[in-house]
UniProtKB/TrEMBL annotation:
Keywords: DNA-binding, Transcription, Transcription regulation
UniProt GO MF annotations: DNA-binding transcription factor activity; transcription cis-regulatory region binding
UniProt organism field: Phaeodactylibacter xiamenensis
InterPro entries with a match to the protein in the record: HTH_LacI, LacI/GalR-like_sensor, Lambda_DNA-bd_dom_sf, Peripla_BP_I
Entries under CDD domains matching the protein: HTH_LacI, PBP1_LacI_sugar_binding-like
Name of the protein in question: HTH lacI-type domain-containing protein
Domain of life per record: Bacteria
Keyword Isomerase: no
Domain HTH lacI-type: 7-61
Length: 347
């Protein structure tokens, strides 16, 4: 049996009765082609099951309708919500999306960047991996005319890009104030790698809130992790809670570590929130359903995702003869008080 070959533009031209150049222009909605001809060509393409090659189209027209997304992890609540919104918004605006998960690897991030550049994407939306400490691959993309928008994990070293972030310093400051307001006065902090700006800012906000309240900052109560996974949260909780001088509250730089901290504390007989208050940055879908439910700081993932696509498409379509003004957009967060810090009501 003869293997069926893939339908190409020559087949569509023969089926529709037009030249190849006319068919190509019709499929790309060229203004020089009449509406009647476009209808005939597209009908022939549908009958044959013809599909345009997005990369080939971008090469021939110098216009791509594909956006690349570099995301550190897809199994975290905030990031999965962000990517869901990115894809949904891009599709509504006529763009397809290539999603690349870096697993927080700098090398993987660079490899995927090369793939996206080779694919001639119109733009890239990225949240940096935890390992990223050099940025030549982003400059390489921009040199190729690819627009870049950074979300959440950003770096001031990447110039001429729109950045969509939260105020990590102020948010951590207010989160710490909340814990203090609930009567906790010996507070530990679990940080991500501070070479990433957002984790450095969160730690500064925590430290400043203690200073303003006149509370001690015990260096032994500050721990760092390059991962902040559930397992890492458990490991660090064991370390902090095994000390002779224990804290009575723990603020973690992500919500997954907060969840594992609560689980471990309960396992060893420490009551939450009576003996230990716990608050986590960001929000996992099940935070509200834990026992006790987890006090969290919600990041605006939906708003971030929509804005990232809108700003990227705006820059893609900007007049090349005019200078595009890049922005740093700071969005609001929301503190969600729940049982894990509700100490006053337990007394």
């Amino acid at each position: 049996m003869k293997k069926k070959t893939r339908v190409n533009i020559y087949d569509v031209a023969e089926e529709a009765g037009f030249s190849i150049s006319t068919v190509s222009r019709a499929l790309n909605d060229d203004a020089r082609i009449s509406a009647k001809t476009k209808v005939k060509v597209k009908a022939a393409a549908r009958r044959l099951g013809f599909q345009k090659n997005a990369i080939a189209t971008s090469l021939s027209t110098n216009q791509s309708k594909v956006i690349g997304v570099l995301v550190s992890e897809l199994n975290r609540g905030f990031l999965s919500s962000l990517v869901h919104t990115l894809e949904d918004t891009a599709f509504a605006m006529g763009y397809s999306v290539i999603i690349c998960q870096t697993n927080n690897s700098h090398e993987r991030e660079k490899t995927y960047m090369d793939t996206l550049i080779a694919s001639r994407v119109a733009g890239i939306i990225a949240t940096l991996s935890l390992e990223t400490d050099s940025y030549e691959h982003f400059e390489k993309a921009k040199e190729q005319g690819i627009k870049v928008v950074l979300v959440d994990r950003v770096s001031p070293k990447i110039k001429s890009t729109t950045k969509i972030v939260i105020d990590d310093y102020q948010t951590a400051f207010e989160g710490t104030q909340h814990i203090i307001g609930q009567g906790y006065d010996k507070i530990a902090y679990v940080s991500g790698p501070t070479k990433q700006l957002l984790y450095a800012d969160r730690l500064r906000g925590f430290e400043q809130a203690l200073k303003v309240a006149g509370l001690p900052l015990n260096p032994e109560w500050i721990e760092y992790s390059d991962d902040l996974s559930y397992e890492e949260g458990t490991r660090i909780a064991k370390k902090i809670l095994s000390r002779k001088d224990k804290p009575n509250a723990i603020f973690t730089a992500n919500n997954l570590a907060a969840i594992s901290t609560i689980a471990y504390a309960r396992q060893i007989g420490i009551r939450v929130p009576e003996d230990l208050g716990v608050i986590g940055f960001s929000e996992e879908p099940f935070s509200a359903f834990m026992q006790p439910s987890v006090t969290s700081i919600r990041q605006p993932s939906t708003e971030m995702g929509k804005l990232a696509v809108q700003k990227l498409v705006e820059e893609i379509n900007a007049d090349p003869g005019e200078s595009y003004i890049h922005q740093k957009i700071i969005l609001d967060t929301e503190l969600i008080p729940r049982e894990s810090t509700n100490r006053l009501c337990k007394r």
